[in-house]
Each structure stands twice: as structure tokens, then as C-alpha cells.
Amino acid sequence: MANRIAPNPFTPKSGMEPKFFAGRDKEIELFHKKLVEAKHRRYDHFCILGEWGIGKTALFKEFKKIAQTRRILATYVSIREFQESDRFINATEHLITHIPRSLPLKFETLTNFKKFLSGVGVTLPFIGGGIQVSEKQLSGDPQALLLDALMRLWKDLKQQTDTIVVLLDDAQNYKPISGFLTIIKNVLSDDEIQKKTGYLFILTSTNIGWDEFLKKHHPIGRFFTPVLTLHNLSEEETHFLVQKSLDSTGVKVSKSILKKIYEYTEGHPYELQILCSYLYENQIGRKITVRSWDTSLGLTLENLGQILLDTLIREASDRERQLLKVLASVEYPLEWKSIIPLVKNMAKSFPSHSVGKFLSRLLEKGLIQQPKRGVYKLPDRMFREYILRLE
Ligand SMILES: Nc1ncnc2c1ncn2[C@@H]1O[C@H](COP(=O)(O)OP(=O)(O)OP(=O)(O)O)[C@@H](O)[C@H]1O
Ligand SMILES: [Mg+2]
Q1: Has residue 219 been placed in a domain?
Q2: 159-197 pLDDT, tens per residue?
Q3: Does 152 lie in the same domain as 172?
Q4: Of all protein residues, whose CA lies closest to atom 8 belonging to ligand 1?
Q5: What's the pTM value of the predicted model, to 2 decimals?
Q6: What is the DSSP track for 3-58?
């Protein structure tokens, strides 16, 4: 229909597969390299770190597709949030019941694995081809059970693939039972697993989450190497993403808006998907121009506020907020010395001698950054816009 507009090509949700996947050349190249090494029976389990919304899940979904085009089986597991009350056995149960879920094959064909599960008391009613664990909890030694499960699964699949790629997303969710990563490591270093199977494990985690594991369990860091950190997309990749996503929609974006998209999001995938999604909604006559900008930016900040920024800002005290506003009042990083008169100007009663103390608290909370000694800035442009709009 001539006057219909194509559905919104942007994906303003965490975990949503983008219509057009941009950048990540280095990470994809490394993955190809690891697949080749795995073919030669060298399984170099590695780790990908990145902050919220930077594209960890999207990259994993891409990895899965890449592996499968090469006829290598890959499975994606989203690690659920574990609690202090959880035990290793719960994590084992979660892992062994989720690993087969996203394998591109019929569960019924996994005869050895199915036998194993029923042997340990996990019954599997089939619902839409998926697996549901029975009320009865798995019991036994978590490490032995995980090892056994992986051995059996391998037996079922070794005719079809030379490697099974296991993508474990959000390993920081193991935090309350962080020793579970050591169990995974032990299983993967087991002689039998190394000699007889072909598993390649890849993890993602938030940076802070990973640091905490390393503090408690040093060898984990040496085991899951290399560690790649995901960063924002470049300006070129951002422009490419926006234009490619719009390609089949007939909607055009002006050059100045393209530039602004990068200027405000700095190539953060989640931020730019939300912003572009609103820009698309607010197009006029199939054109995204400066007329659509203010409304879309406002909606983006509202949306980011709800999911993230509000919680961050709630962690700041009144004094800390005043400092944030001072930092937001200019476009460049501020030196400690120039912050004092600015904050005094805004709030006369602000105790100058405490500026340093409040700045270090803001740093600890991740609400500001320190690009150089004695110099402070807000984490990004969106955050700045958000602070500027606060009451
Ligand atoms: N390389 C990419 N190209 C295009 N869009 C991307 C890319 N990476 C991520 N996105 C988009 O950005 C958004 C956030 O990505 P994703 O959910 O993968 O991030 P994440 O790091 O897993 O976030 P979370 O911390 O919420 O788990 C999604 O809408 C996704 O479609
Ligand atoms: Mg994710």
C-alpha cells in the first residue's frame, strides 16, 4: 500500500536482535579464529565484557548464527539471577537443562542425554518442544553432574558437529554463588572432557561483575582468556547502522540528524536504537529532520530514565546532585578548581571544603568519570541531557 509506512526497523529493547548488526569486526574475527582452533581440538574458552546495553546479547546471537552457518552447533544460555539462598546444584540444574534448549535440533534425538536426565530424576514434559524441569530438585555432586551431562550430550551430538559452542550470557548473575564458575572451569579442564569432547564456552559479564569474580577466584581470570571488552560503535558504524536499518523503509534521514545521533549517543547501541526508534516514529513525510529531534530526544530520555538513569540518580544525595548539575552545565570536563565557584554560584551554602569528598563519592557510584587527575566529567551526553532536565 502506497501510503503505509514500513514497521519501525529499530530495536529499542535489551536482548532484541537488531535488524542490522553493525561493527564488532574484531570480536567476530576472534570468534572465527577460535572456531578454527577448536576444529584442531584446541578449546580456548573466553570472555566478553561490557556495560549495560552495549550489545553483549546481540553479539552472542550473531556468534550463534555464524557458528551454525559453518555447521557448528551453538547454544545460547541466558544465566538467570541467582540468590544467596541458591546452591551450586541449582546452577547445575539450570545449566544442564538450558544448554540443550537452543540447540537447532529436536530434543527427542538426544537419547543419551535424555536417559541421563531421567536417571537423575529430572523429568521432561515437552511443552512446545522445550524442556520443563520437574518439581523434584536435582541432587548429587554439582561438578560430577555437570561433567556427566556434558559427556552424554556430546555423545549424542558428535556425529553432527566437531564443536559445541556454549554461549553463557550474563555470568555476573552467578555472583551470589560465584564459586560456580570454578565448577565450570573444573569441568572444562577435566581430562575426559578435554580428550573426548569438543566444547567451546564463551561468557559475557558486566565489567564490575567480572572484577568481583576475579577478586574472589583468581584462576578464573586466567582460564577465560582472552577477555574482550565491548565499546561503543564508531561514528562510521553508527551512520551505517542507521542508514542500513532505514534502507528498505523508504524513510530518509538528513545528514545533520545522522551527525546529531552520534553526537548524543556516542555510538552506544542501546541508546541509539531507542533514539532512532523515536525518530522513526516522529518522521514527517518519510523524512527524519530536525523537526523530529526535540520530541524524540525527550522521549528517549524519558525511556532511559525509567530503565536506568532514575535509579542511578536516586543514589546521589542533594549535594551530589548539585555537583552533577554543575558538571552538566558545560560541554567539557571540569577541573576541580573551577567546580567550586560554579557550585557556590548555584548553591551559596555548599561547603567548599567538601567538594572533593562529594566528587569521590560520585566517582565511586559511577555517576561521574575522571579522565585525568583533578578533572571530572559526566559519563556521556545522554546523561548530561538528562541531568539538565532534572528539577
Ligand atoms: N552491533 C550492533 N548493531 C546494531 N544494534 C545493536 C548491536 N549491538 C546491540 N544492538 C542493539 O542495542 C540494544 C542493546 O543490545 P543488547 O541487549 O545486546 O545489549 P546487552 O549488552 O546484552 O545489554 P544488557 O546489559 O541489557 O544485557 C538492542 O536493541 C540491540 O538490538
Ligand atoms: Mg544482554
Answers
A1: yes
A2: 999 999 999 999 999 999 999 999 999 999 999 999 999
A3: yes
A4: 55
A5: 0.89
A6: T--PPP----STTPPPSS----HHHHHHHHHHHHHHHTT----EEEE--TTSSHHH
